[in-house]
Amino acid sequence: MVPIENAASPSGARRLSLRVLPRTFYDRDTEVVARDLLGRILECTRGGVTVRGIISETEAYLGEHDPACHAAVGRTRRTAGLYGPPGTAYVYFIYGMYWCVNAVTRAEGLPSAVLIRGVRPLDGLEDMRKRRHGRRRGAEVADHALADGPGKLCVAFGIDGPTHHGADLVRGATLRILRGAPAADADVRVTARIGISKAKEWPLRWVLKRQTADGGR
DNA sequence: TCAACGATTTTCT
DNA sequence: GAAAATCGTTGAG
Questions:
Q1: CB of A82 under 7 A from strand B?
Q2: Which residues pair with residue A176 across a beta bridge?
Q3: How far, in Å, is the CA of A67 from the C1' of nucleotide B3?
Q4: Is A200 helix (H, G, I), strand (E, B) or coil?
Q5: Could you tell me if residue A215 is inside a domain?
Q6: Cα–Cα nearest to A40, from A156, A122, A157
Q7: Number of structural domains found in chain A
Q8: Whole domain around residue A57: which residue ranges?
Q9: What is the pTM of this model?
Q10: Which chain A residues in 60-79 sit with Cβ < 7 A of strand C?
C-alpha cells in the first residue's frame, strides 16, 4: 500500500505505511508485542467512516499467572476471547460505561493480550470529536485528548463489544492495526500498569514520550 | 439471588 | 483530591 504523510507531525517528513500488520506480529511474547505496537496505526471503519490514530500507550496482560489479567480466573464466558487466535480483538465493558480494546497475543489457547490505552488522532478527527462530544456536557475536547485513554479511544473510534469483540485485526474489514512507523527506543518509556490492584509494580506499560516540535524527547 | 468490585472518565469541592 | 456515574462478571450464600 502507498505510504502517507504523518499528519500528526507536520515537521517530520515521516512516512507511515498503511499495510496491515500480519498475524505473526501478534504471535510473540506479549511484552514484545506491547512494545512493538507503539507507533503503529489503529484504524476503525464504521458506517462508511474511517478513523485512524497512532498508538501511544499500551499495557501487557500476560495470562492466567498474571493476577491483573482477566484470565487469572481461568476460562469463562467473559475471558474466552483471550484464549483465541493471535491478532483478534478482545473488547470488554468496564465500570458500567466504557469499552476497552485489546489485541490478543501468542498462540491460540494462551490467554494473553495487549490493552491499547491511547492513540494520537491522525485521520477522522471530526468524527472523533462528534462521538466524544455526545458524551460530554462541558467544554470542547482538545484534539490530543480525544483518545488518550482506553475508554475515550473506544468512544472516539466507535469501538464496542457487540460490534468488535472477537474481530480479526489482520483480515477483518472494520478494525485493523497498520504498520505505521515503529517507535524508536529513545521515544519509549516503561512504567507500571495503571488502575489495577494486583501485581501493581510489574513494569508492563509502554508509553510514547510526548512529541515536541523538533521531534524530541 | 445478592453484594462487591472493576485494565475509567468526568465533575465537583 | 474526592466522589459520582453505572452495570456485567464473579463468588459467596
A1: yes
A2: A43
A3: 22
A4: coil
A5: no
A6: A122
A7: 1
A8: 4-208
A9: 0.92
A10: 70, 73, 76-79
Estimate in Å the CA A13 to C1' B4 gap, whole number: 52
Q: Indicate whether A45 belongs to any domain.
A: yes
Q: What is the pLDDT of residue A9?
A: 47
- For strand B, is any atom closer than 7 Å to the CB of A98? yes
Cα(A157)–Cα(A172) distance, integer angstroms: 16
- Measured from the CB, is A190 under 7 Å from any atom of strand C? no
Distance between CA atoms of A207 and A205, rounded to whole angstroms?
7
Sign of the CA dihedral running A203, A204, A210, A216: positive
Residue A11, CB, strand C, below 7 Å:
no
Nucleotides of B under 7 A from a protein CB: 5-11
The verdict on residue A216 lying in a domain is: no
List all residues 6 or more positions away from A161 whose beta carbon is below 8 Å from its beta carbon.
A91, A92, A93, A99
In-domain check, residue A155: yes
**Which of chain C's bases lie under 7 Å from a protein CB?**
5-11
The reported pLDDT for the residue numbered A14 is: 63
User: Which segments within chain A are labelled E, that is strand?
Assistant: 4-5, 15-20, 41-46, 49-61, 89-94, 98-104, 113-123, 175-180, 188-191, 205-208
Q: Indicate the average pLDDT of chain A.
A: 91
A137 is near strand B: CB distance < 7 Å: yes
A135-139, A162-166, A167-171: the lowest-pLDDT one: A135-139
What is the domain-level CATH number for residue A73? Answer: 3.10.300.10
Whole-angstrom distance between the N-terminal and C-terminal Cα of chain A? 30
Q: Is the pLDDT of residue A135 over 80?
A: no
